[in-house]
């Protein structure tokens, strides 16, 4: 059990990578506070985990709301008495539109969801982790904005690149007290964010082709990397941009 008795907040836990992480972390003994906007879905997932003997509580909310990060931490402390890890994973792509045509609203919402939410998460999770003797902050970044660019993804790329700068500073600010901070950079992954990829053969073929493995990931494969960052097995890892991208970043053929 790699996360035995560790208390973990996971956002974006109602689908995709966050849901896969919730199920995997529960199997590894974690006590979970699950966050996302879809209350019923989140409660169903938490219920299934509890039904299998795990521990999970659903706290529905919007990571753009300033009070939500605090609420998630308060729930972890009230319910489980400590906080060991925050897997800050909720995210959205925003509208795919070139910068001259992008609305202020799209830019602001994408940055608020993907980057400003990380500020709020860190602000509230770090004091709780310090009281627990240390912890692991994980932020889901992306290959987009790091090793690849696509037209129309300006807000998304900027937000995901911003997370990498943020973890570097967080790592230096709190490393001496045992708080680690890392960015997780998935390659293309089969989740709701990828849309109906299996019904769009041309788009799927393109996405497959840009990875050295010539396929995209299943959410569980990315969750396995998050598990490593959450667990003590990554105890000497901090400030990193951890690429889990099927060779997307080095692929040129
Ligand atoms: P997904 O759409 O299945 O999951 C996104 C999750 O975030 C959902 O639970 C959604 O409800 C939640 N969410 C979105 N906006 C929210 C908000 N404002 N408040 C609360 N919750 C919110 O997609 P996914 O692929 O599992 O995405 C997880 C993370 O992985 C995202 O940060 C995404 O940018 C990143 N990522 C995905 C891919 C990919 O190809 N799927 C690649 C690289 C990075």
What key attributes describe this structure?
253 residues; alpha/beta; Rossmann fold; seven-stranded parallel beta sheet; two-stranded parallel sheet; 7 helices; 43% helix; binds nicotinamide-adenine-dinucleotide
What's the topology here?
Blueprint: E1 7-11, H1 16-27, E2 31-36, H2 39-51, E3 55-60, H3 66-80, E4 85-88, H4 104-131, E5 135-140, H5 154-174, E6 179-186, E7 189-190, H6 201-209, E8 217-218, H7 219-230, E9 241-244
Parallel strand pairs: 1-2, 1-4, 2-3, 4-5, 5-6, 6-9, 7-8
Helix pairs in contact: 1-7, 3-4, 4-5
Question: How would you explain this protein's 3D organization?
Answer:
Belongs to the short-chain dehydrogenases/reductases (SDR) family. This is SDR family oxidoreductase. Keywords: Oxidoreductase. With 253 residues, this protein is α/β, with parallel strands linked by helices. The protein has one domain: NAD(P)-binding Rossmann-like Domain (Rossmann fold, 3-Layer(aba) Sandwich). The protein contains 7 helices and 9 strands; from the N terminus they run βαβαβαβαβαββαβαβ. The strands form 2 sheets. A 7-stranded parallel sheet has the order 3-2-1-4-5-6-9, with helices on both faces. Helix 4 links the parallel strand 4 and strand 5. Helix 1 (16-27) packs across helix 7 (219-230), helix 3 runs parallel beside helix 4 (104-131) and helix 4 runs parallel beside helix 5 (154-174). The chain is globular, with a radius of gyration of 17 Å. The model has no long low-confidence stretch (mean pLDDT 98). The site of nicotinamide-adenine-dinucleotide has 28 residues, from helix 1.
């Amino acid at each position: 059990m790699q996360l035995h008795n560790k208390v973990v907040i996971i956002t974006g836990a109602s689908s995709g990578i966050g849901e896969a992480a919730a199920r995997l972390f529960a199997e590894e003994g974690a006590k979970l506070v699950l966050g996302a906007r879809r209350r019923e879905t989140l409660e169903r997932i938490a219920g299934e985990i509890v039904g299998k003997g795990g521990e999970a509580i659903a706290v529905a909310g919007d990571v753009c709301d300033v009070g939500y990060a605090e609420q998630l931490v308060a729930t972890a402390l009230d319910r489980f008495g400590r906080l060991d890890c925050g897997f800050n994973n909720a995210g959205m792509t925003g509208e795919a539109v070139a910068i001259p045509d992008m609305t202020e609203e799209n830019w602001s919402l994408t940055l608020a969801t993907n980057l400003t939410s990380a500020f709020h998460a860190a602000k509230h999770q770090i004091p709780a982790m310090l009281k627990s003797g240390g912890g692991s902050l994980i932020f889901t970044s992306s290959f987009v904005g790091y090793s690849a660019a696509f037209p129309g993804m300006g807000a998304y790329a900027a937000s995901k690149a911003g997370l990498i700068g943020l973890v570097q500073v967080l790592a230096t600010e709190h490393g001496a007290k045992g708080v680690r901070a890392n960015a997780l950079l998935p390659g293309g992954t089969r989740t709701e964010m990828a849309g109906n990829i299996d019904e769009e053969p041309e788009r799927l073929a393109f996405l497959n082709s840009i990875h050295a493995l010539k396929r995209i990931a299943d959410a569980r494969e990315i969750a396995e990397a998050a598990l490593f960052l959450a667990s003590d097995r990554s105890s000497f890892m901090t400030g990193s941009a951890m690429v889990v991208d099927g060779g997307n970043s080095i692929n040129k053929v």
